[in-house]
Design goal:
Layout (H helix, E strand, L loop, with lengths): L1 H5 L4 H12 L11 E2 H12 L5 H13 L4 E2 L7
Parallel strand pairs: 1-2
Length: 78
Amino acid sequence: MALLRATPLTEDQIKEVVRNITAEGSTALADNAIDEDEIGAFIKDVTDHDAGPENIKRVAAKLAAAGWPLAGVDGTVI
């Protein structure tokens, strides 16, 4: 079980999470900024396991690169 939580997202999974977060009507955009908890929840929906800080940062970096507003998320890739 611990290995599943530590598994990095594939590039396709990252793209799916970003698409879901930025989709029209997404709850993540309700307050005009996407935060770490919201990214984690969308990752969990795609992967069925905890997001982990590395995956949250990778998704945040993609969002930041596309100009999406982040709230309290470090978008640097590790």
